[in-house]
Design a protein that fits this description.
This protein has 103 residues and is mainly α. The protein has two domains: 33 residues; 70 residues, no CATH class. Helix content is 83%, strand content 0%. The protein contains four helices and no strands. The longest helix is centred in the first third of the chain and has 32 residues. The chain is elongated. 15% of the residues are buried.
Length: 103
């Protein structure tokens, strides 16, 4: 039974290593292509949307996402952009109201 436990441990370790390597490769691709919002490659556009989702709301980001949502031919990516845009617009409105109170 000791050999079985050792084999199982090695198998689990190998599986975890492959999973971690895959995650690192995907993360690297996301970072590399995150600014490729208008690329001809759909994966690059998805990566760029992932980057935009983590950005703070700004007028530039909102305008860029509006342009992208009107340009994007794929419904899934357009929906993702619209969701990010809605969140940014709401964050921006809240920020503007907060600044008015402090003035």
């Amino acid at each position: 039974m000791d050999k079985r436990a050792k084999r199982l441990g090695l198998l689990l370790l190998g599986t975890a290593a492959v999973g971690a390597l895959g995650a690192l490769i995907i993360q690297d691709q996301m970072r590399r292509h995150r600014r490729d919002l208008f690329s001809s490659n759909a994966f690059r556009r998805l990566a760029a949307l992932g980057h935009m989702a983590g950005e703070p709301a700004s007028v530039d980001a909102i305008m860029l996402l509006r342009d992208f949502a009107s340009w994007e031919p794929r419904r899934m990516l357009r929906s993702r952009a619209t969701a990010i845009l809605s969140r940014m617009e709401e964050d921006f409105r809240r920020g503007a109201r907060t600044e008015e109170r402090h003035s």
